[in-house]
Please model this.
Amino acid sequence: MSKKKKNIQLELKIEKLAFEGFGIARNEELVYFVKNAIPGDTVLANVTKKRKNYAEANTLEVLEKSSDRIEPICKYFNDCGGCTLQSMNYSEQIYWKKQFVVEALQRIGKITDANIEDTLAAPQVFNYRNKMEFSFSAQRWLNIDEIAGENDILQKDFALGLHTPKNYMKVIDIDKCWIQQDTANIILNIARDLALDMGITAFHSHIHEGFLKNLVIRYSRLENEFLVILITNRPTVNAEEEFVSKLYEKVTSQVKNTSSFLWGVNSTLSPLAQGEIVFKKGKGYLTEEILGIKFQISPFSFFQTNPTQLNNFISLILEKAELKPTDFVIDLYCGAGSITLPAAKKVEKIVGFELVQSAVSDAKMNAQLNNIENAEFYVADLHAKETPDLLKQFPTPDVLLIDPPRAGMHKNLVQHIIEIKPKNIIYVSCNPATQARDMILLKEFYEIESCTPVDMFPQTYHTESVAKLILK
Model:
């Protein structure tokens, strides 16, 4: 007979905030990471996992509220896991985002003398996202109230919304997401209501059956236009194809500024919200602008998701770079050129490197769209062994721009940067921990002049960090 786990409950005073949004408390020399708790709270917590040096816990009750605690505006707050800081005043959110950067540099990078500036606050803290990927699922997440309630649970086999971190196989049925455009919520509910009315099945990730997989809603702030992408399994009955046609008609008639509607088929087991486009109405792309540079955004291409903060973000990067008309610049992990092309207006020449072929194609197209002739783009795996040989074909840059993915840079690339010794480095990161790790190698040769956290994702724990490094 297996032993039952002990149900350990204890009172905890929350002292700090961890990077992933957990409250941190200490009790009897053990560190507790507590879900749904913020600094200043005193909570009754249930321990869910215990290790030698730390434990994890869920908040059962807030016994004494922090002065910075507010009521979350979203009814899915306890289940969704997306906006983990929504119960905290915004001024405190940006304070702790600075602390995430400070602690990463000090604890991981062993850097204590860097000038860490205050977080660049976002001008809009709700309804800011220009892209959301929603999932259809035949496995709806049931919340505690539904399970404990006396009423019959309805519609267990259909959901359209977001995955819950408590069980990624299940999806929370959402009718309003507060961080996307209000009009996007109308599109979300049109799709759900029509699917339920027509009896169209959602995909079941266990048995790999069902038609509907994803609904992607993209928005252009510049043009005030929506691009909607429906991702499905391959249709097996006429009603499924009829659903696609009716969804197109309903969305475009009720949301007049829907400029494009696409249907993509993904018959693989991949959960990616992409597929082979088999139906397209409208121009099939959006246009956005960064500091006067227009960007054509194809259906599946990456573009920064907060257009309300984007100009501030790129302006900060360029300001730190102090670009001159005679400069030669290299941009590593350049994507579709969101930093490269605005920088090109200020320098003699700039070269961008990026792994994803489609992103490089978009960058070249956007350079042509804006008549920018001093920017070149190359497809390259910057973590490959031959990368140093590729970069050696170019002069040592006056400024090196780096914007790697969350995993940071490969140590071979860091070593090559040290060898070529660019005078100035602007290191943009979406993960303070890996940025600090990479700084361990760089700090011997570079002085970290400043580091500025940027809030691109209000209500979440995510933060961008822009560091300027100067050759010693």
